[in-house]
Write a structure and sequence with these properties.
By secondary structure, the chain is α+β, with helices and mostly antiparallel strands. The protein is about 15% helix and about 40% strand. The strands form 2 sheets. It has a 6-stranded mixed sheet with strand order 1-2-6-7-10-9, with helices on one face. The longest helix is centred in the first third of the chain and has 18 residues, at about 5-20.
Length: about 190
């Protein structure tokens, strides 16, 4: 990442944090509160900080869907988390193309505001049904509201999730097809 991109990235988060909560939260972010998402579930939930993942070299992606996991019935009662899935694919010359992993992303956890802010880079195109996304989270026991913000920059898009309780979150990536997974613990878990 170039110095200009790095400054722009920091500037973006300072603006975002000013819009969504404590303006001093970014300045208080310590190195031990920055985590890297893995490529499998590891049951380590985070209660605050910044989770990063993806590949900065992946560009021109399509956000196909943002959805709640399809777990239902007795299995849902036994599952200790509620899952948000972001489905992604690449595009080249107007045609969809496979990508090896997600583009670079950051998920900022704001426990006092009970909010999560997720930004996805890679010149994302938004191809999901907004009404369907919002409707799917109305049934959530953990998510209070999903804010699908307007895309104001070509190279990134941000949305926020307001929660009913302070968050406890695990983020990881899956491939074939490429997805970013955000698991919200139903009960408070140990973790940072």
């Amino acid at each position: 990442m170039s110095a200009t991109s790095g400054r722009r990235l920091i500037g973006f988060f300072l603006i975002a944090l000013g819009c969504f909560g404590e303006t001093n939260a970014f300045s208080e972010l310590r190195q031990d509160q920055i985590f890297v998402a893995g490529n499998q579930k590891n049951k380590i939930y985070r209660k605050e900080g910044l989770i990063t993942g993806g590949d900065r070299n992946i560009q021109d992606v399509i956000i196909k869907d943002i959805r709640r996991s399809g777990i239902s019935g007795k299995e849902a009662l036994a599952t200790p988390y509620e899952r948000l899935v972001i489905d992604l694919e690449g595009t080249r010359n107007g045609e969809t193309t496979p990508i090896p992993r997600p583009p670079y992303y950051q998920l900022a956890i704001h426990p006092k505001e009970k909010q999560v802010l997720l930004s996805i880079w890679g010149n994302p195109q938004l191809a999901f049904d907004t009404k369907k996304v919002l409707a799917s989270f109305q049934k959530s026991a953990l998510v209070k509201k999903v804010n699908l913000l307007p895309k104001v920059e070509d190279d990134l898009w941000t949305f926020s999730i307001e929660l009913k309780n302070p968050p406890s979150i695990e983020v990881f990536e899956l491939s074939s097809p490429v997805r970013v997974i955000v698991d919200f613990a139903k009960k408070s878990t140990s973790g940072t």
